[in-house]
Specification:
Elements lengths: L1 H16 L2 H5 L11 E3 L5 E4 L7 E2 L9 H11 L11 H13 L10 H9 L6 H17 L2 H11 L6 E2 L1 H9 L8 H9 L13 H17 L5 H9 L14 H9 L17 E2 L4 H18 L6 E8 L5 E5 L27 H10 L8 E4 L18 E4 H6 L3 H11 L1 H10 L3 H6 L16 H12 L3 E2 L14 E2 L3 H11 L21 E6 L5 E7 L3 E8 L11 H17 L14 E6 L13 E6 L12 E7 L5 E2 L9 E7 L3 H10 L27 E4 L5 E4 L7 E6 L7 E5 L2 E6 L5 E3 L4 E9 L4 E10 L1
Parallel strand pairs: 1-5, 3-4, 21-27
Antiparallel strand pairs: 1-2, 6-7, 6-14, 8-9, 10-11, 12-13, 13-14, 15-16, 17-18, 17-19, 20-22, 22-25, 23-24, 23-26, 26-27
Keywords: Carboxypeptidase, Glycosyltransferase, Hydrolase, Multifunctional enzyme, Protease, Transferase
EC number: 2.4.99.28
Protein name: peptidoglycan glycosyltransferase
């Protein structure tokens, strides 16, 4: 009998060595593991059932602690590291005991043989046992002892639909295997002997007795120190069934839906089993809690959802990803991913527009922009508060998020240029919509996602260099793209950091510990979306609030609703952060500018202030906000150089407003010096009457179609903006004189049906025409 066994074993070993088993009996493929998304530190963020509806989380080698290794080997297979997959001595002893009927019947299965049975379950017969032995030899020929041990711990049953030591550790103790105590580790080695009768949570009393029995046995064998055994025996058994890890459900679903990559060609779960995300577990948990509790407080206001994205500026790694306030809230569509949803960005694109304009030399922070009612070819933007300020500096326009100056700026930059830059920054919807986009783009008239906006603000935080956000640890680092200069990025950052935080002065006593942040808000048309995005040296954080159904809410504004959550997040992540603030780059310098216009001072600019500028790029034209005019001694008429008398005149400075600003001041009744009319005795056409000083027709809109109500005798309004020296304008309809009026006085006509030409001429002979179409109902 002994001789025959030795011959059989030798033959089996020979077949294994020469690969015969591989050709005749290919290794079975292990059952599929549960898709798992891991945090940056390797802990499980989110897990899903495997395709065969099991909780089978892959355990990496680092999860198999020395304690677990020693306990398992001592309990299941003392000679595991010495035999070739089968233990001949144990087999002979078991055969003799079973034949003589003495003691408990046993199969003398090694850990390797148990792995073979787990991979390929068979009936417990002599033939089945021989196949297990063959498979065990085959496994030993392919894998190391550690890999075989890993396979065993990944497949061993723990009752119900739980398989594998990592699944059991997380679902019954709420900890990964390497965090378990000695008592908990021994518990997990005991359950597989009787997964039904010793199932944790259901049979804890029987499991406790079995655990303590094995602890005493291992202590007697000297596997663990006596003191450790005594402490483990006193530890209560607190095993209970827990929910699977479910942090970051939106990102987990996003990553798992991509082809799930396990170690190709291997049946062992490698160290990188699962998708390793960049999320920081503590940051993700904090962001989810803050978002969920904050949205609950907003429910009475009709605001039901939020999304939050937190990015590490240095690495572009996403540290927190909150797609909705509550993934399980089906009533409010909680499974929608608000980070990828295309929404109107409101005013959040303005900082980037001004950065582009700074790089083109069009403006500097102190440069004055018009903030007056303006008709941009039929598009009449309004500020959020419905008010106009006449003229404002760029920094004020950005701080107060004024709409009209931003549209003026986009008109100068060019819609195509701006959308091209956004496309380079990863704005996919803008890239598709570009041919149809107009000046309303800067006020939210395009589509953008929170992901895209956070990436754009992270660009400003990284000196104007754009790189895509990173979701996984193995994502390749792309080469940075310089979207805007470091100088313009710094200037925008400096302006946005001047905004007053919403938690001050309430938190004034703690302000020294509060993080400094540059931030911007946005509110979409109809108050459907509220945005607040901020950044400092460490983080860029984006917040969106609204309703996934698209319903607006009266209270839904970026400043009032989204910003408090933004600063809750910054205070939680960066409180007492002593990190250095952004420093001015080398390519930036100071200069004196006129305090009225923000331009390089001219001869008539007594009041000057310091302003940043980009040498070699910023506009260097001299300021002409005041114009020198020759007037008569009594101030009633002005002279041009042609009709200037030899004496009896004086030089006077008058404000040189644009026609739009002048019309706004007149309409608002704001006092301003008015240039006297030109000398009527001068018959020559003045050489300084530039064509661009002709009246600008504000109403009607060029090339527009007007439908008037015939029953109400509805009329068409005529209105213009003229230069400062204009006293009277003359209106014409289809080249027929209508009437004369003051330059700011509205005129009403009742036109006929069909094409209509409206002309406006000023008292200097300058003329403007527009064409419209009139219909009546």
């Amino acid at each position: 009998m002994k001789r025959a066994t030795q011959i059989l074993l030798a033959a089996l070993l020979t077949l294994a060595l020469f690969g015969g088993l591989d050709r005749l009996f290919p290794l079975p493929t292990p059952p599929p593991y549960s898709p798992v998304v891991l945090a940056a530190n390797g802990s499980v963020l989110h897990a899903y059932l495997s395709p065969d509806q099991k909780w089978r989380l892959p355990a990496a080698l680092r999860d198999i602690t020395p304690t677990l290794r020693r306990a398992l080997v001592a309990k299941e297979d003392r000679w595991f590291y010495f035999h070739p997959g089968i233990n001949p001595v144990a087999l002979l002893k078991a055969a003799g005991r079973n034949a003589l009927g003495q003691g408990r019947r046993t199969g003398a299965s090694t850990i390797t043989m148990q792995v073979a049975r787990l991979l390929e379950p068979k009936e417990r017969t002599v033939g089945g046992k021989l196949q297990e032995m063959l498979r065990a030899l085959q496994l030993e020929a392919h894998y190391s002892k550690d890999e075989i041990l890993q396979l065993y711990l990944n497949l061993v049953p723990y009752g119900s639909n739980v398989e594998g030591v990592k699944s059991a550790a997380l679902l019954y103790f709420g900890q990964p295997p390497h965090y378990l105590s000695l008592a908990q580790t021994i518990t997990l080695t005991v359950v597989p002997n009787n997964p039904t009768g010793l199932a944790p949570d259901r049979h804890n009393a029987a499991l406790l007795a079995a655990r303590n029995r094995w602890l005493r046995h291992l202590g007697t064998q000297g596997v663990f120190p006596k003191k450790d055994i005594e402490n483990a025996l006193r530890e209560p058994l607190l095993a209970r069934r827990r929910a699977a890890p479910h942090l970051a459900p939106h990102l987990a679903r996003r990553l798992v839906r991509e082809p799930y990559r396990q170690a190709a060609g291997s049946s062992v779960a490698h160290e990188d089993a699962g998708v390793r995300a960049t999320l920081v577990r503590a940051t993700q948990a904090k962001a989810e809690d803050l978002t969920r509790h904050y949205v609950r407080r907003l429910a009475p206001l009709g605001i039901t959802q939020a999304a939050v994205l937190v990015v590490d500026n240095q690495t572009r790694a996403v540290q927190a990803y909150v797609g909705s306030a509550d993934f399980r809230d089906a009533f409010h569509q909680g499974q929608v991913d608000g980070i990828r949803a295309v929404r109107s960005p409101g005013s959040t694109l303005k900082p980037f527009l001004y950065a582009v304009a700074l790089d083109r030399g069009l403006v500097t922070p102190k440069r004055v922009l018009p903030d007056v009612p303006t008709n941009f070819g039929g598009f009449r933007p309004e500020n959020f508060d419905k008010r106009c300020n006449g003229e404002v500096t760029l920094e004020r326009a950005l701080c107060y998020s004024l709409n009209i100056p931003a549209v003026h700026m986009l008109e100068q930059v060019g819609v195509g240029t701006f959308t091209s830059q956004l496309s380079r920054a990863g704005f996919r919807t803008v890239g598709r919509q570009a041919p149809q986009l107009g000046l309303s783009t800067i006020l939210g008239g395009c589509g953008a996602t929170l992901e895209e906006l956070v990436g754009l603000y992270a660009t400003l935080a990284n000196h104007g260099r754009y790189q895509p956000l990173r979701w996984t640890q193995n994502a390749p680092q792309s080469k940075p793209v310089q979207l805007v200069s470091a100088s313009s990025a710094y200037l925008i950052t400096d302006i946005l950091s001047q905004l007053v935080r919403p938690d001050l002065p309430v938190g004034f006593e703690n302000s020294l510990r509060l993080p400094r942040v540059s931030w911007k808000t946005g509110t979409s048309y109809g108050r459907r979306d509220a945005w607040s995005i901020g950044y400092n040296g460490h983080y860029t954080i984006g917040v969106w609030l609204g309703n996934f159904g698209g319903e607006g809410a009266p209270a839904l504004t970026g400043t009032d609703v989204a910003t408090p959550l933004l600063f809750d997040l910054f205070n939680a992540l960066s409180y007492n952060d002593s990190g250095e603030w952004f420093a001015p780059p080398a390519g930036l310098d100071f200069r004196l500018v006129c305090s009225v216009s923000g331009q390089v001072p001219g001869p008539n600019c007594p009041d000057q202030v310091m302003d940043y500028f980009l040498p070699g790029i910023s506009d260097v034209r001299r300021c002409e906000h005041q114009q020198e005019v020759f007037v008569s001694a009594d101030g009633r008429v002005s002279y041009c150089r042609v009709c200037l008398p030899e004496a009896g005149y004086r030089r006077v400075l008058y404000p040189n407003f644009t026609p739009e600003v002048l019309a706004f001041k007149a309409a608002q009744g704001l006092p301003h010096a008015v240039r006297p009319p030109h000398n009527p005795a001068c018959a020559l056409v003045r050489a300084d009457d530039a064509p661009d000083q002709a009246p600008r027709i504000l109403s009607p809109t060029p090339n527009a179609e007007y439908v008037l109500d015939q029953r109400d005798s509805e009329k068409l309004q005529l209105r213009c903006a003229a230069a400062n020296d204009v006293r009277q304008v003359y209106w014409y309809a289809n080249d027929q004189f209508v009437r004369a009026s003051g330059p700011t006085e509205p005129v009403f006509i009742r036109p006929g049906i069909g094409p209509l030409k409206i002309s406006c001429a000023d008292d200097h002979g300058r003329n403007t025409n527009v064409q419209v179409l009139v219909e009546r109902l």
